[in-house]
Design a protein that fits this description.
- The complex is a heteropentamer, with 1 copy of chain A (about 230 residues), 2 copies of chain B (about 350 residues) and 2 copies of chain C (about 220 residues).
- Chain A is of the alpha/beta class and about 230 residues long.
- Chain A has 11 helices and 10 strands.
- In chain A, strands 2-1-3-10-4 form a 5-stranded mixed beta sheet, with helices on both faces. Chain A has a 3-stranded antiparallel beta sheet with strand order 8-5-9.
- Chain C is mainly alpha-helical and about 220 residues long.
- Chain C is about 80% helix and about 0% strand.
- The longest helix of chain C has about 35 residues.
- Classes of the chains: A alpha/beta (about 230), B alpha+beta (about 350), C mainly alpha (about 220).
- Chains in contact: A-C, A-D, B-C, B-E, C-D, D-E.
- At the B-E interface, helix 6, helix 7, helix 8, strand 16 and strand 17 of B face helix 6, helix 7, helix 8, strand 16 and strand 17 of E.
- The complex binds adenosine-5'-triphosphate (ATP) (2 copies), molybdate ion and magnesium ion (MG) (2 copies).
- The site of one adenosine-5'-triphosphate has 11 residues of chain B, from helix 1.
- Chains C, D: It comes from Parashewanella curva.
């Protein structure tokens, strides 16, 4: 019996790692997880990547898999994502949940590099772009933007003090190795459209995959998601 | 009943990979030396005989068996021809010992016999004690002898030697010459040997074939060719000869004589060929400064540039007054003492000089 | 340290090298000993993976062997698994990318065999296969060894193509090189550091070994 | 077609080649003409980037030149900008990665100069610089040309390292190779296809040219 | 007043890069030939003289000026020594034309004069018409002459020639010999010339230096060394000599004679040296088969393996009965006719044979 592979958006990385651990403890079954940007993963699935569960960072990409008849409907919403603004502890700039300082710092030329995920194929990147547009700095900040391949790489870029921070998934900032090095503040959810994160169980899913899919909807898993800063769907 | 010809008959004609046109034969047990400047096509001709290169036209037969015939599209591979070949650079298998190298050539024997046969031949070329060394550990002369042993051990129908003594010092070369001379009586196949060395050819070969630009320039028994080169190129190929250029002054068709200018000298020579006035012709001059008689009708004044003792004789480098081609001559030492000035008079009869 | 990734990388290296070496010996021999029209182009083509960006190679593999392509679908029916995002895809990619590393040293070695040696082999009555086994292969052996070492270490480090057609599946397509990238993204610089160090040491040793080998051959031949 | 990325790639290639070529000439000459202890190790080290995974190189650059490192901070003070996520970082990475491509052909060319020629130059009274300019450089010129072509095309295709330390900034660190990757990730296969085709054609032509050049030199020397 | 020594004085001793120990001198205008087997260290010695290699100990002076002195840590560079050097493989600059090559050697002249001087020397070596060709377009002999012209045009204080006529065909070689002989009177510096060719050394050199394993084996005037090699190695180096090994049977210290066994012959020879019984000694035999007198006390029976006509004389390859070292001998043709059987008797006096 081979171990099923889960394709997951990079933003759920640390939360899902923990859920995977719990799942293995509780059931004795194993899964393995590949992280990437939702767009990249969706495209890999379309090209035949042997994933059995797909956790997207939005609902569109999950729906596209369903539309392509690669997974049975419906796309199941498993969490509502939140963004955070963050920077390395050495960057001595204030953070706020409405990004009030960012605009100011930009004007003062204190921002040279600012990381977000690639908005072309990472939903967190797209939402970060929405935020920057909402506060009216998109034009100004665009030349300074570092595009992470996915939101985790964006976080890694933002973590480097070669940049003055970035907008990443709130869940990533809750990771252990992260909080020691960086400061982060959750961004007001009103600044961007809702990050409705949906998942699908692909056609070829094995029993273990189905079990993990179910486990993801268990209270224990949901608690972990909450711990990592996600909101749960109503 | 006439015995059928036993030996190699070759008559080929090709333009790829280079132009080669050759017609000659070689009896079993005889050695034919192939002479020519670098690039004359000697190696190519040998490879054609070996079957390594396929010529375009012609025939090759050995002991009445056809090896190649362009009209019947017959072309035996080297493997089918059963030859012994010592390539120009030996072609030893460097990862094998001397013994293994020789054994490699003995595919045609039953496995059990190969070892003994190889051993015999290594002994024959004086390398029994070196049989477990690999080529890189052996000297040039020793390598050469392994290649020779490998070719001979096959007891081939045709032996091809490409400058087989080129890479060895004079002492070893002498030794190898002696060995080949001794083997000559034991080898019952034709031997074709490429060489650049006139002395070697004289020593070993029964026949000479002179090649130039892929063509056979002259062929015949060794003595014949050496004493009568038929062209300037042939004379040059034969190396030690003194060839100088002269200018035709006039010709007397009835007497069959030609008046030539050689340096600042003019004289008349017997000459059956028709020449143009003013034409440059090659003169083959002798190698000896022979001034015993006073009766010789031609007197050539030489500038002597240097002379040194070589065994019993005195070796001289000289030029004809009015010409700058260097001549090498030898003479008895007492003769030169008389002419220790930097000039000497060389007395010749018209028959001493050959016009080419 | 991600042992699974290391094992996978080694497995990929071994398989690639095992497949590529014998093929390269035959192809290199053909290229070394035959002259034909357009040979320079064939040789240039064989060298292409050396300077072609991995993303371009990845792109063409994705398009050529992905499920949307005719070839990919045929292969999937035949093999039962898709090629891309699968170990077999990595093998295919590694084979492709490593052609120059395998072919070059072996071809150079064949070219270094003097004509006289091959002629002598033929005139000794050895047929083509005997000549190949008994004479040529022993002589090109150092070149083959160089090819093996280069291929092996290069597969171990292959990144761009694997990233594009691998899918980062643990135990299947997550090679050591990808694992390092993944660890960096997970802010786990220590793990990435250890893996990098291992690969660095391996690379330097490999090269010191091959340089030494090449020198020794040079000396032997010289 | 992403013209900005193409231009950036070309700019990176030109700058890398311009810096690397003269340095390589001097270093290659020193390596070719001097024997010293541990030379095999130096040569192996110089070859390392050829088989070292790009992620490892990327990792070390990230750690070594990131602002957390002493070196990175010093460089930032000197240059005024950080090295990572900056064009200068790509230049640095390209220089590092392309050392073997620049050094190898030039060193081989220097090694091919017969001792007799250098001896003759010295005995003709030419001093070291005259000898370098009037005799050696004209003789190694084909090697230098090969190095330039290889470097140039290899920089054009560099991917892994740029992905890790570039940050994908349009016009600054988003090279053609990254752009292709990006386009593939964003399902824009057509754009990726065009860019790939351009690089493929360029690579094949480059190699046909250098192979031809190498052959010609071989023939001239042979 | 005594003239100070004008020329090269060399006394060096080194173990890197290889062992070399040499002490010799060469006057201005004289030619010293350096002979030795391949690998003897000839080229290395030349490079030491050129300043390309720095020896560990010793001194080199030219015309009383010190070029190298290990005690004063003085070592002039090649550039400072002002020499003319023709390397073993010419060392031409392949990207430059013949003329530019010669001009490259004229850094010491004002720019304006260089072109004319280079032209002069190209004319001198007969290459005026080829001046715009590059080395790859020229023949071996022509390249050789460019290298020679480049070295000579510098009007050097010391001329070093490393096998300067090695790569040319016999015809061109003769021509170059003649040219060097003619130039000899115009060159006012010492000339050190490496050669493998005895005839060349005899022809051109005033002195011979024989080298082996980095040591000088023997030196002296050309005739001296050739007529009296002081060891077997020296005799071998001198090439054409007939050296065979004999065994010491007994020695009479009072009469200073030694009884030796040569092949199957035994006889007594004058010999001042002390020998061990059973020791192998080299015997230097003459080159002539000279059987005119019957009074000679030593009669050696020869196996004659082959003989051929070489000019006026007959060249013979033979071995002594009971020995297998090949000897080359010549004789008058009429002598050999008498002994056309495969054996001949060689009559010698004890003074004809030198024990080494
Ligand atoms: N396969 C080939 N294709 C084209 N040209 C060739 C080939 N083999 C040899 N040649 C050329 O043909 C000419 C004759 O070559 P070959 O080796 O027969 O000369 P050779 O008489 O043996 O000379 P050498 O005395 O130098 O060995 C040379 O100019 C050589 O370059
Ligand atoms: N730089 C060096 N380092 C070590 N060994 C060397 C060096 N140069 C020459 N040798 C070795 O020293 C020996 C003598 O070399 P050298 O070139 O002086 O010989 P040679 O007498 O000129 O021989 P040839 O007649 O072949 O030219 C050779 O065995 C050679 O390999
Ligand atoms: O799909 Mo992501 O989590 O925005 O990279
Ligand atoms: Mg030949
Ligand atoms: Mg030498």
């Amino acid at each position: 019996q081979s171990i099923p592979t889960v394709a997951a958006a990079a933003n759920v990385r640390f939360a899902l790692d923990k859920i995977q651990q719990q799942f293995e403890q509780d059931t004795g079954k194993q899964v393995r997880i590949s992280y990437g940007s939702s767009g990249q993963l969706m495209q890999q699935i379309k090209h035949g990547a042997p994933f059995e569960i797909f956790l997207s960072a939005n609902i569109d990409y999950a729906q596209k898999i369903v539309d392509a008849k690669l997974a049975p409907p419906p796309a199941k919403i498993y969490a509502i994502g939140r963004l955070a603004i963050m920077h390395n502890k050495h960057v001595k700039l204030p953070l706020s949940n409405n990004l009030a300082y960012l605009k100011q710092e930009l004007q003062q030329g204190k921002i040279q590099r600012f990381a977000i995920a690639n908005p072309d194929h990472a939903p967190y990147g797209a939402r970060a772009k929405d935020v920057l547009q909402a506060i009216g700095v998109w034009q100004q900040i665009q030349p300074k933007l570092l595009y992470g391949e996915n939101v985790a790489q964006a976080a890694q870029f933002a973590l480097s003090n070669a940049s003055q921070g970035g907008i990443v998934a709130l869940s990533l900032t809750k990771a252990k190795g992260f909080s020691e090095k960086a400061d982060a503040v959750a961004i007001d959810a009103k600044l961007h459209p809702k990050l409705t994160q949906a998942m699908v169980l692909l056609n070829n899913a094995s029993d273990t995959a189905k079990a993990f899919y179910a486990y993801l909807q268990s209270p224990k898993a949901q608690q972990t998601l909450l711990d990592f800063g996600f909101d749960l769907p109503k | 009943m006439v015995e059928p010809f036993q030996g190699l008959v070759c008559q080929i004609n090709t333009t790829t990979p280079i132009f080669i046109e050759a017609e000659f034969d070689c009896r079993n047990g005889e050695i034919t030396a192939l002479l020519g400047v670098s690039g004359a096509g000697k190696t190519t001709l040998l490879k054609i005989l070996a079957g390594l290169i396929k010529p375009q036209q012609g025939e090759i037969h050995l002991n009445q068996r056809t090896w190649f015939n362009s009209q019947c599209h017959l072309h035996l591979t080297p493997q089918q021809r059963h030859i012994g070949y010592v390539p120009q650079h030996f072609g030893l298998f460097e990862h094998q010992t001397a013994l293994e190298n020789v054994i490699s050539g003995l595919n045609h024997l039953p496995k059990a016999e190969r070892h003994a046969r190889a051993n015999d031949w290594l002994e024959m070329v004086g390398l029994a004690t070196e049989q477990h060394k690999r080529p890189p550990q052996l000297s040039g002369g020793q390598r050469q002898r392994i290649a020779l042993a490998r070719a001979l051990a096959r007891e081939p129908d045709l032996l091809l030697l490409d400058e087989p003594f080129s890479a060895v010092d004079p002492q070893t070369r002498k030794q190898l010459h002696l060995q080949l001379l001794k083997l000559k009586s034991r080898i019952h196949c034709p031997v074709i040997m490429v060489t650049h060395n006139m002395r070697e050819a004289q020593l070993l070969a029964d026949h000479l074939v002179l090649m130039n630009n892929g063509r056979i320039l002259q062929q015949g028994t060794t003595d014949e060719v050496i004493s009568q080169p038929n062209s300037i190129t042939a004379a040059h190929l034969l190396g030690n000869q003194n060839v100088v250029y002269a200018k035709v002054i006039s010709q007397d068709q009835s007497k069959q004589t030609t008046q030539i200018q050689l340096g600042s000298h003019q004289f008349c020579l017997p000459d059956p060929q028709v020449r143009h006035i003013g034409e440059r012709v090659g003169c083959l001059l002798p190698n000896e400064l022979n001034v015993l008689s006073n009766s010789a009708p031609i007197a050539i004044t030489l500038d002597i540039h240097c002379h040194y003792q070589d065994g019993q004789y005195r070796q001289i480098m000289a030029t004809i007054v009015g010409d700058h081609t260097p001549l090498t001559l030898h003479s008895m030492p007492e003769l030169l003492r008389k002419t220790e000035s930097s000039q000497a008079v060389w007395l010749l009869t018209p028959t001493d000089i050959t016009l080419l | 340290m991600d042992w699974q990734a290391l094992l996978l990388s080694i497995k990929l290296s071994v398989i690639t090298t095992l497949i590529l070496t014998p093929i390269s010996i035959l192809v290199a021999r053909a290229l070394a000993f035959n002259q034909f029209r357009g040979k320079a182009w064939v040789e240039a083509l064989a060298m292409t993976p050396l300077i072609l960006p991995p993303t371009v190679i990845g792109y063409y593999l994705l398009v050529g062997f992905g499920q949307q392509s005719w070839l990919g679908q045929t292969l999937q029916t035949v093999l039962g698994t898709p090629i891309v995002f699968h170990f077999s895809g990595l093998v295919l990619a590694s084979l492709l990318v490593n052609i120059p590393f395998a072919l070059q040293p072996i071809q150079r070695a064949f070219e270094a065999i003097p004509d006289d040696v091959r002629d002598a082999a033929a005139c000794c009555g050895l047929n083509r296969w005997q000549s190949l086994w008994k004479v040529e292969i022993p002589l090109v052996w150092p070149g083959v060894l160089t090819a093996i070492v280069l291929c092996f270490s290069h597969v171990l480090g292959e990144f761009g193509v694997v990233l594009m057609i691998g899918g980062n599946i643990a135990g299947e397509t997550k090679t050591l090189s990808i694992a390092i990238y993944d660890k960096v993204q997970a802010f786990d610089f220590d793990a990435a550091g250890i893996m990098s160090l291992i690969l660095l040491i391996f690379a330097v040793c490999t090269l010191a070994f091959t340089t030494h080998l090449t020198k020794k051959i040079g000396v032997n031949r010289g």
